[in-house]
Amino acid sequence: MNVKNIFNPRNILILIGVGIALAIPLMFNASQYVMLLMTTVLLYAILASAWNIIGGMAGQLDLAAAAYLGLGAFTTGTLLIRWNITPWVGMFLGGLVATALAMLIGFPLFGFKVKELWYALSSSALVVVLQSLFMMWNEVGGPTEKYLPIGTSPWYSLRFNNYMPYYYIMLIILVVVLLVNRWIRYSKLGYSLMALGEDEDAVEVLGVNSQSSKLKALAIYAFICGVVGGIFASIYGYVHPAFFDTSMSMEITILGIVGGMGFIYGPALAAIIMVSFREILRASLGSQLAGLYLAVYAIILIVVALYQPRGIAPLVERGLKKAQTYFVELTRGRRADIKSH
Amino acid sequence: MLETATQGIITGILMGAIYALIALGLSIVFGIMNVTNFAHGDFVMLSMYLSFAVGSALAWDAVATPLITAPLMFLFGIITYYLLIDRTLRQMYVVQLAVTVGLQILMRSVALIIWQAQPRALQYSFIQGNIQIAGFEILTSRLFSAVVSLIFIAGMAYFMNKTWAGRAMRAASDDLGAASLMGVNYHKTYALTFAIGSSITALAGGLVMSFQQTDPVGGIRFGLLSWAVLALAGLGSLPGLIVAGIIVGVVESLTVSFFDPRSRLLGVYAIFILVLWLRPRGLFGRR
């Protein structure tokens, strides 16, 4: 990066964002409720950013985020409950289990070139199927919650009595996922995926193996969801088949679309805005009528999707470009030739 | 063993006819407008609630409620079309997904607000009881629903092939540009199509309410079932839809009687995935 450019609006915004994210727990230290809320927001931001790899870049409308999340949660939970294996190991194994299932589903689906709609439907059905499977599998799941033991050390069992550690763990994962997004976006895989999202046949003719590119994207996405699922189980302190939540999967997909498909920060930004908004609605309306906050939230999602179909990231980009021009003019004494960015 | 199987198959065939009816609404919307309505199952859920509301307010039998709920759902379909679907037609495909999934969340939460989370059911239908044939039990309400479904599907086949409105729909599905040149206003045709698809769920909802209860998340199951039927049948064949509905119904029923009631969707999902892998245009599809 150019040293002269390091103070451009984009980097300043990133710095401010990271600063706020780091400072929030100190600001609201007293309120565990706010910490849980912020952790939930980060959870959605991570999942939506992971979705961006398979959905935003590769154009595959995956609706199975909660399937992979649930698998990660159950793997981590079961390992801790049965064999006292720390979630620090469990979450990565959970990620691997999720990836394995994703490969099992994705290999034939991509191989037979199942088209977007049918891929979306079969991934959405996967969540329902896993839920009923884990409902029946009493050793691991079953209709009652299986609680994670607290054990001797909270760091070993990843069971804290406040939400702050979870918040920072989630924050670190979000940064990592965003960096992974950035790395993929500007790698050979990313260019293949972006092209795939546009026109699959043309890309095939140019010698890109679309099946293996899509499988790689799906594997990374499922792995991230699985790892986050492990932490999800630790935060809630139990595992239950309700973790396989179709509504949550769909919400992740909508956040990815509303954020701006293919923009690295878009889905995370959408998640931060929309999920905070949803939780505020839940806090203010939830006590009066169950479901009212979701109705308002759904209407806003629909309106954003209809009137800003390319997502909110392009809006931000436009704003940033204006700010950049203004900034450069300000620092370099209004040189006319810079205006034509 | 054999008796359980036969009993399961009989129940499955009867349910399958109703699944075919539910999938018919989806098939019309998807086949003609190429609109993917992810909320279709929730249209069925809403219809069932409307049927519950009408049935309990007027003390009507569940099977009579479509007389009122079908016009209501027709209206709901027209409003939904002009308010949401029409605006997504020229957008990217994902916008349609986002909008219909948003609609799904909206319908589910509205149902939760109005009718709360506990399941709702109507009084036993006047067509309760069962018929015994060769030792097998046939629930009269299901038999009645299956027969009505089949008659309605046959009527729909007639409508699509013989009337101007039906032909206009099929023309718009084959070649939108040419149909527009021949004087078909596609906004109106699409609105009519969507409204018909939506009012079919009202009929299906009334029939299902004669022997089942409804809850706010019941839409997921009907959505998955009708997409599975549609994937199996392929587009453009109404008899195919009936056969596919029956296959799905029988598989579901056999999974329930031989394996576990909680696994009812597993067999359906297995068929769905296999069809997508092996025969993406369905068993009877024309494209």
List the helices and strands and how they pair.
The complex is a heterodimer of chains A (341) and B (287).
Chain A: H1 9-27, H2 32-57, H3 65-83, H4 87-111, H5 116-136, E1 146-147, H6 154-157, H7 164-185, H8 188-198, H9 200-205, H10 210-236, E2 238-239, H11 246-259, H12 266-285, H13 292-307, H14 313-332
Antiparallel strand pairs in A: 1-2
Chain B: H1 2-33, H2 40-58, H3 66-88, H4 93-115, E1 130-133, E2 136-139, H5 140-162, H6 164-174, H7 176-181, H8 186-209, H9 219-233, H10 238-258, H11 264-278
Describe, in plain words, how this protein is organized in 3D:
The complex is a heterodimer of chains A (341) and B (287). Helices cover 73% and strands 1% of the residues of chain A. Chain A is mainly alpha-helical. Chain A has a two-stranded antiparallel ribbon. The longest helix of chain A is centred in the middle third of the chain and has 27 residues. The mean pLDDT of chain A is 82. The longest helix of chain B has 32 residues. In chain B, helix 3 packs across helix 8 and helix 5 packs across helix 6. Chain B is mostly helical. At the A-B interface, helix 4, helix 5, helix 11 and helix 13 of A face helix 3, helix 4, helix 9 and helix 11 of B.
